[in-house]
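Usage example:
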Amino acid sequence: MPRITFVTADGQEITADATPGLSLMETARAAAIPGILAECGGACSCSTCHVYVDPSWYDRLPAMKEMEADLLDFAWEPHPDRSRLSCQIDVSEDMDGLRVTLPAQQG
Amino acid sequence: MDPIAIVGAGQAGLALAAKLRSLGCETPIRLIGAETAPPYQRPPLSKKYMLGDMSRERLYLRPESFYPEAGIALATGAPVAAVEAAAKVLVLADGTRLACSAIALCTGAEPIRLPEAAGGGLNGVYTMRTLADAEAMAPEFRPGQRVLIVGGGYIGLEAAAVAAARGLQVTLVEMAPRLLARVACAETAEWFRALHARHGVDIRTATGLSELVGTGGRVRAARLSDGSELPVDFVIAGIGVRPSTALAEAAGLAVSNGIAVDALGQTSAPGIHAAGDCTSFPHRSGRIRLESVPHAIAQAETVAAAMLGQGAPYVARPWFWSDQYDVKLQIAGLNAGHDRVIRRPGEAPGSVSHWYFAGPALLAVDAMNNPRAYMTAKRLIETGRSPDPAALADVSVPLKALPLTQTEPA
Ligand SMILES: Cc1cc2nc3c(=O)[nH]c(=O)nc-3n(C[C@H](O)[C@H](O)[C@H](O)COP(=O)(O)OP(=O)(O)OC[C@H]3O[C@@H](n4cnc5c(N)ncnc54)[C@H](O)[C@@H]3O)c2cc1C
Ligand code: FES
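Running the assembly step on the lines above writes:
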């Protein structure tokens, strides 16, 4: 089971077991990670599941679609080479050790 | 200590319970719901889930292990029969009485059904509100089946899109002269009419359902207001919802287009709060009711804080979305009271946004496959700023460079 570390905006680290096939957003929600609102429940409509991906992981994740890129462009403080919407990343076995940081604010 | 009881284990009920815990509340929490499923998301019922693209477990807002871990006692299949407001007692369906330290009503809304007299009670006639509704109608979604959808609002249109995508023959009737008459401008309505027509949906506006005709208790045809008769295999009614206020009314709480609450979610009875689709609440100079997930969550979280004495007044930031075929619609704001609509084509083909103004003030935006327009508008509306309408209509002016004026206090 891949283990994923969420770092909250104030630096607290929470490591959660992830179920492959579920999204990173669903993983966070199941582990009650604060700071991910996911208002649209993963429909790629709200941008309130924004995370900053650890630089060493960014290029190893599945590529972004245009809708995600457009939403991120207007999210709260997006980072050009680290931002992703966590609902658009389905967790796979090879994501063991993935680290993401939460923004101080969503939406 | 007597528990905090939350009546209704839906989107708002769960958000309220989870927020109480995350704010450090240590009182026992009872989350009591009439449905048999644990709290789940409704939006996919008329979208991905109906397409067969999503498992049942993924509808659940939390895994079932969450509740015991968070110390939330979840009771499903447990309708609450009565609330004794003064004593803060709930009466469950089996007669059990539960004394509570506080009560929150998150009872949601219920679909309006077609009248029995018009054949609404026949087999093969469905509403689309609950997982049980979706599961009951799932076997009907077979290629070639003829479905009649009654109502041209968002639920009806989403149902039409799913049915058409799955190869059914879809007819949609709408009594009003156009689609989305209550919720969107004529431009948006026309855009969606054309979209559905391209996917082979037979849309009949200014056409009502007179009656459904059955054989052996099962629907087989629909008589329409233009006198025609249409053979059908099943029917989906998407004719709106009513706030679920029966419990509150019987308990003597003030009800006005929903359980009337103040900006902290307090009802007219001390110690009883309410949140979500079932409430009407102060907004600007009036009182409104919203039916949306983001509102249910945000209002429930405000109410959770208020129940712990930490409340700040709820300010709604209305937004909504809908998925139909390969189109994503995002709506920011509320368009009531607009006097004109500005159309702005998007960068990609097939993407466009409609901006609603009242005088110089931007009220709302419908963005079709245009998340950039949606995000821009949402920010502007939330901060009380409005773009110059002439610049907006000119696509050579980038969204991020629109001249702005402050039209509402920020
Ligand atoms: C098919 C469909 C598609 C939708 N799509 C969207 C969308 O795309 N975007 C969006 O923002 N919103 C959408 N909505 C609306 C959204 O789902 C609702 O606004 C939201 O669920 C409201 O949450 P709630 O908790 O107030 O009510 P609900 O989720 O309805 O929960 C209320 C619960 O209370 C229970 N209850 C009622 N009375 C009692 C009682 N006496 N005792 C115990 N339990 C009781 C009910 O059984 C229900 O489970 C959609 C709704 C439907 C039906
Ligand atoms: S949950 Fe809404 S975009 Fe990810």
